[in-house]
């Protein structure tokens, strides 16, 4: 490949198309400018490329150079006169993203593996069907018919296992005669990733009624998942089928230097790349207007979940419905009237682009964000878990701890970094507010770096990482990620006021009582070796009461010592709760209202 | 100049309205381009194939799938009626008989030697699509549906619940500031779409529903009343399929907010006319807003085009749509070009306005709506 000097990447979101221009400056790749324009998949445009061209025009203006030719096409490769770019890449979640139904034999086993495969490929799961899901056959048939997914992933049976149940699933599909969401009259793509012995009988039943693709079993044995072949098939169908039906995507596919990726799939790629390169456990959350995506890599295992109806504008009332008014208002450092809160959130839902003008309004929005993040994380923990149904040899300690198969892989004590993304976190008026929301929602344990995505360019960097990993990693580290600082959070419980943790930084000891927060200034790039001495019943990673040495890093916020205990509890009575919240706000340098 | 938040809601006394009427599956279009249609006329029809119900023959007979296949008395394509014997076995010199009957009427569409199941496809169900508005067929999408066009008044609301209804428009209050209370709903409102002012009480909504009122159009509602009326909370802003007899359309929002004077005056001018309304709302990609359409008899030379890109200027009338001045009306006095930090700490483009009570305020431009004069 000739040397890549200039890269343009777009992300076509459901409301905004974002373009970034990356150029090689000396030895490193850096973000140059960013442009955006409304996405144009809806009438009257019905063509995604209109929004792409508008966003790229803004990039042209800001960068002061030509990228589009006279006909409005992106010039690739870069010409001698300096116009155009060497690579053009794109991701997309416009037009409702990739919507899938997954099916399996056993809900907690093959159906769950299928769910992980589809989520990891960037899909929104609209239903999970399993032989044992408790619904009657006709109810499942009705549901499959009503939903109109973009494709169905069918799994089940270990290789050499059940055939009958898979044929039953296939029969159910035939009964439902499902139609794809896009392209009236087209056959629905169905990926079969189940028992290889059942391939022929399933093929016989499904025949030419659907567009059937057969791939390797995603759960060939009980103790092994093989999700990649199914994920690749999903990606391929997304490109060939879904993208071709969406307005203007045929044209966009011709423009890009590599296949269009679904946005969450691309974000997953960059998170995996970062975790691998830095040898870290990473958790990332992207909280948008409609959905919240959570990505994690723990000990090399990647998981993604999407909470399709938890968001800060379109879905804000679903956060209200799921969390309830009391769980939202518990984070507000003042009294909140329930009826007012409900009306406020409804008005935000119907006018999603308004912004908080008063501090009080901002605190309410940030309270909602905490609940949306928390609920999406709970959802993530239930899916990011070890394989169920696997017999394991357990030692006495594990038996005593009652560890079961199917336990969550999310281990906060071993988590190294949390990356927050999405308007409410990336654009919080003060960086410490983003750190505070993440602290409350995730309650990290031990030592964890908090960071935010500066301008949400993880999708573009994700697709770039598949073509030019070096450029993607450099821009991610230098221009995308804003480190907020390390958090030191001992787990356990003590009496209020007792010293829960003493942290010595630069020779100065910071004693923090139980139930308190402390912010120690340390700017970005500054790294310190510290000594942490937890209180008798507290553990910061070395065991209860055991002192440990650790490395912490500063950031836009500094180092936060969080001694509120884990699990963190808020006072029950409203007055004490408000007092406590005010104290924590002040400790972090925040005004209350 | 600058941009204000605008949900792009149309309030027009006369415009061309085009409604796409589409079948869920391919079917038959019953009208031609140029045909005059009434709101209730069926314009397209299709049959939705019935689902397949499974009869577990092998299990009923206690046989292996292959043995069950041998005992089958039907083949693929056979029409069957409920109670008909599907398969029969005899044993012990014919003295013991086992039989499997179908509980379903339909057509045998699937016989599976692997599972020993027989699938019976139930009869299809007809699905019809009506014209929804009085107008003319402007376009036919072969086998899929039509576009019906009319000239008429159009009011788009900001949020609604309940589906399509057609009825006569009636004013139930005198002023856009009035709350629609129970006592304002009369027997004569049965079969009508009624208009209230700044809000509607739960009692009024219930009375409207019980009294056969087809639709209620008001400025706002208190959220807890809406939840009570529906019997469930609304999570995601996708509505229109609620199981309610009275469609509700809000023109302004939640809480208590007077209906915009212009909207109220337009609806008042349409009193007594047949209107088509739909509460369906979707506030995300593919925005759908609730609507009130009143076809008019005049044939326009040049109908008013959709108003696009409302512009904020000094003197523009606005309404603030977010706290701390939520719902207040005023006039723009200054439009500073630079970004300004507001109380929350956000650095945004703002405007200065004089509210109707004389207060001079600063508001983010994203937090105001232009009021069309």
3D architecture notes:
The complex is a heterodimer of chains A (593) and B (373). Chain A is an alpha/beta fold. Chain A has three domains: 6-94, Nucleotidyltransferase, domain 5; 98-245, Rossmann fold, CATH 3.40.50; 282-587, no CATH class. Helices cover 35% and strands 24% of the residues of chain A. In chain A, helix 8 crosses helix 16. Chain B contains five helices and 28 strands. In chain B, the strands form six sheets. In chain B, strands 1, 3, 12, 13, 14, 15, 17, 19, 20, 21 and 22 form an eleven-stranded mixed sheet that branches. In chain B, strands 23, 24, 25, 26, 27 and 28 form a six-stranded antiparallel sheet that branches. The two termini of chain B are 17 Å apart. Chain B is mainly beta and 373 residues long. In chain B, 41% of the residues are buried. Chain B has three domains: 11-44 and 135-295; 52-121, OB fold (Dihydrolipoamide Acetyltransferase, E2P), CATH 2.40.50; 317-370. The chains are: A alpha/beta (593), B mainly beta (373). The interface between A and B is large, with 61 and 52 residues.
């Amino acid at each position: 490949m000739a040397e890549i000097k200039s890269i343009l990447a777009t992300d076509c979101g459901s409301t905004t198309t974002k373009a970034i221009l990356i150029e090689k400056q000396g030895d490193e790749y850096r973000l140059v400018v960013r442009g955006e324009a409304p996405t144009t998949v809806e009438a009257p445009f019905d063509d995604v490329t209109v929004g792409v061209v508008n966003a790229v025009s803004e990039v042209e203006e800001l960068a002061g150079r030509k990228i589009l030719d006279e006909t409005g096409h992106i010039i690739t490769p870069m010409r001698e006169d300096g116009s155009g770019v060497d690579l053009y890449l794109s991701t997309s979640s416009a037009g409702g993203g990739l919507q899938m139904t997954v099916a399996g034999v056993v809900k907690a086993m093959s159906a769950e593996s299928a769910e992980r495969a589809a989520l990891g490929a960037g899909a929104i799961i609209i239903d999970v069907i399993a032989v044992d899901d408790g619904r009657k056959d006709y109810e499942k048939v009705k549901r499959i018919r009503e939903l109109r997914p973009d494709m169905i992933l069918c799994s089940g049976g270990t290789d050499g296992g059940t055939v009958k149940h898979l044929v039953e699933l296939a029969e159910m599909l035939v009964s439902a005669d499902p139609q794809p969401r896009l392209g009236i009259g087209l056959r629905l793509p169905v990926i079969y990733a189940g028992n290889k012995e059942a391939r022929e009988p399933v093929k016989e039943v499904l025949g030419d009624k659907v567009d059937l693709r057969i791939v390797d079993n995603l759960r060939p044995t009980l103790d092994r998942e093989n999700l990649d072949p199914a994920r690749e098939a999903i990606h391929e169908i997304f490109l060939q089928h879904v993208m071709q039906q969406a307005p203007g995507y045929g044209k966009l596919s011709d423009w890009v230097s590599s296949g269009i990726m679904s946005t969450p799939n691309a974000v997953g790629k960059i998170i995996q790349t970062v975790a691998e390169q830095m040898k870290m456990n990473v958790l990332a959350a992207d909280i948008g207007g409609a959905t919240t995506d959570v990505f994690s890599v723990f000990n090399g295992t990647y998981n993604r979940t999407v909470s399709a109806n938890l968001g800060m504008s379109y879905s804000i009332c679903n956060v209200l419905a799921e969390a309830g008014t009391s769980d939202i208002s518990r984070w507000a450092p003042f009294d909140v009237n329930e009826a007012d809160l409900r009306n406020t959130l409804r008005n935000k839902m119907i006018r999603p682009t308004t912004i908080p003008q008063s501090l009080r309004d901002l605190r309410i929005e940030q309270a909602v964000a905490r609940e949306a993040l928390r609920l999406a994380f709970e959802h993530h923990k239930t899916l990011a878990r070890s394989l169920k149904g696997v017999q394991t040899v357990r030692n006495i300690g594990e038996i005593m701890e009652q560890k079961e198969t199917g336990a969550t892989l999310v281990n906060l004590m071993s988590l190294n970094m949390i990356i927050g993304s999405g308007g409410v976190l990336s654009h919080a008026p003060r960086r410490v507010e983003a750190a505070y929301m993440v602290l409350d929602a995730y309650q990290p344990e031990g030592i964890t770096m908090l960071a935010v995505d500066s301008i949400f360019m993880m999708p573009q960097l994700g697709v770039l990482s598949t073509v030019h990993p070096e450029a993607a990693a450099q821009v991610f580290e230098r221009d995308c990620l804003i480190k907020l600082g390390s958090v030191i959070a001992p787990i356990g419980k003590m009496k209020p006021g007792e010293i829960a943790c003493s942290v010595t930084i630069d020779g100065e000891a910071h004693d923090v009582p139980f139930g308190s927060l402390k912010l120690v200034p340390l700017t970005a790039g500054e790294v310190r070796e510290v000594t942490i001495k937890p209180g008798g019943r507290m553990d910061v990673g070395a065991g209860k009461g055991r002192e440990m040495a650790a490395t912490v890093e500063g950031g836009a916020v500094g180092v936060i010592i969080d001694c509120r205990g884990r699990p963190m509890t808020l006072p029950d009575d409203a007055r004490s709760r408000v007092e406590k919240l005010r104290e924590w706000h002040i400790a972090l340098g925040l005004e209350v209202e | 100049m600058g941009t204000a938040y605008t949900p792009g809601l149309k309030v027009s006394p006369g415009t061309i309205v085009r409604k796409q009427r589409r079948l869920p599956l391919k079917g038959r279009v019953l009208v031609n381009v140029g045909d005059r249609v009434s709101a209730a006329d069926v314009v397209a029809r299709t049959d939705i194939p019935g689902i397949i119900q499974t009869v577990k023959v092998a299990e009923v007979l206690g046989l292996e799938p292959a043995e069950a296949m041998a005992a089958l008395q039907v083949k693929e394509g056979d029409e069957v009626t409920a109670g008909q014997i599907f398969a029969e076995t005899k044993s012990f010199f014919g003295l013991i008989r086992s039989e499997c009957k179908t509980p379903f009427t339909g057509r045998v569409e699937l016989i599976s030697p692997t599972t020993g199941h027989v699938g019976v496809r139930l009869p299809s169900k007809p699905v019809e699509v009506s014209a929804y508005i009085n107008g003319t067929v402007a376009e036919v999408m072969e086998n899929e549906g039509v576009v019906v066009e009319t000239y008429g008044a159009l009011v788009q609301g900001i949020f609604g619940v309940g589906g399509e209804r057609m009825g006569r428009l009636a004013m139930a209050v005198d002023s856009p500031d009035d709350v629609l209370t129970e006592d304002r709903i009369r027997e004569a409102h049965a079969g009508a779409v009624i208009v209230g002012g700044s809000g509607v009480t739960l009692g009024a909504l219930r009375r409207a529903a019980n009294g056969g009122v087809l639709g209620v159009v008001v400025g706002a509602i208190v959220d807890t009343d809406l939840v009570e009326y529906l019997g469930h909370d609304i999570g995601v802003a996708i509505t229109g399929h609620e199981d309610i007899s009275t469609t509700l359309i809000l023109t302004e929002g939640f809480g208590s907010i007077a209906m915009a004077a212009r909207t109220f005056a337009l609806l008042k001018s349409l009193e007594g006319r047949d209107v088509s309304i739909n509460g369906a709302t979707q506030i995300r990609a593919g925005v759908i807003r609730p609507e009130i359409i009143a076809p008019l008899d005049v044939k326009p030379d040049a109908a008013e085009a959709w108003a696009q890109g409302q512009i904020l200027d000094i003197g523009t009338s606005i309404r603030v749509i977010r706290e701390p001045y939520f719902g207040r009306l005023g006039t723009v006095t200054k439009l500073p070009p630079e970004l300004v930090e507001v109380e929350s700490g956000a650095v945004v483009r703002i405007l200065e306005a004089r509210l109707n009570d004389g207060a001079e305020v600063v508001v983010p431009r994203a937090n105001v709506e232009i009021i069309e004069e």
